[in-house]
Amino acid sequence: MSHRSFLSYLDYFFVLRPMLFFPGWSTMLAGYFIARKENIVYLEPYPFPQDLLKAFVLMVAFASAMGAVFLLNQLTDVKSDRGNKKLFIIANGYIKRSDALRQVALLMVIAFMLTVLFNEITVAAMVLFLVITGYLYNYPPTAMKDHPWRSLVANALMGLLAFVIGWTAVNVWHNRIFLDSLPYILLNTALYLLTTLPDRDGDRLAAKNTLAVKFGTKRLIYAAVLLYLLTVLSALWQTDFFILFVVTLSAPFFIHTAVRPKIVTAVRATKFTILMFAIAVCLKFPYYLIVMVGLFFFTRWYFKKRFNYDYPNFKGK
């Protein structure tokens, strides 16, 4: 097999946008820890092998679900992705549409079969995640991504369901889950608002009515900063030291974005907050660091060799 053909096979993995797994994984694992009442940041690996295995199985299941969802989103966003000059594996035809759809089906089956190993509530949450973020978000009659307020609701639900999947995997259902998840929903929604900004021009050309197109850069940044402040208040109210650790580390980036409301500062705030969230998870689950570092450098190597493209990075673009 030639070097070039090997890289082309890797297209089927990297089209899943694995670097975007980390916000979902971190939120899911936060739910896992909160449900176990391990609500303090400290350096301690998993004490039992079965806990380690359970966490990794849950990560693979949720990664499969996220990968299927990200593929469906790209299949319906080809025009705007071309305009934004990003996500070109699907947009530029490196993978056939029929192959991508088969991959979606396989990933959904994997996600479902692995989640069945937990309990019926976790399965229900996973199915809801796939239905809302895979179908309702992308396709008519709802097509939530094409409507600013519907897309906001959908992304808030994504954060909630990620948390619920982790929380219910180790605990019986209880209404306390909604209070436990509140800081995470607020922070994820703040980050979602910021992620819409770099795509604003391409979305406008594709006639997509996103929040960034509708409200512009400054107003959306101020809304994200407000949600960040509400995250801090809700974390204090919940005495959730885990999320307080995250928002404390990310505070300089949000302050800089509030003082200088530009797309470049918003992108940096998003990237570094996701990193700080992942670092907090590593303090609870040190093996997560191996996954983070390995996937980061593997992704950089692939995009450099395959497309001579600088991704991922911590630049403001």
Describe this structure in words.
- The chain has 317 residues and is mostly helical.
- It has one domain (20-33, 45-307).
- The chain is built from 15 helices and no strands.
- Helix 2 (21-35) runs antiparallel to helix 9, helix 6 runs antiparallel to helix 7 (120-136) and helix 13 packs antiparallel against helix 14.
- It is globular and about 45 Å long.
- Mean pLDDT is 88; it is low at 38-49.
Largest sheet, strands/sense/barrel: none
Poorly predicted runs are 38-49
Q: What gyration radius follows from the Cα positions, in whole Å? A: 19 Å
How many structural units, i.e. domains?
A: 1
Question: So what's the overall shape?
Answer: globular
Tell me roughly what share of residues is in helical segments.
Answer: over 70%
Broad structural category: mainly alpha
Strand content: under 5%
In short:
With 317 residues, the protein is mainly alpha-helical. 75% of the residues lie in helices and 0% in strands. The protein has one domain.
Please tag this protein with its features.
single chain; 317 residues; mainly alpha; 15 helices; 0% strand
Give me the secondary-structure topology.
Elements: H1 3-14, H2 21-35, H3 49-76, H4 78-84, H5 88-91, H6 97-115, H7 120-136, H8 148-168, H9 176-195, H10 200-205, H11 211-215, H12 217-238, H13 241-259, H14 263-284, H15 287-307
Helix pairs in contact: 1-15, 2-3, 2-8, 2-9, 2-14, 3-6, 3-7, 6-7, 7-8, 8-9, 9-12, 12-13, 13-14, 14-15
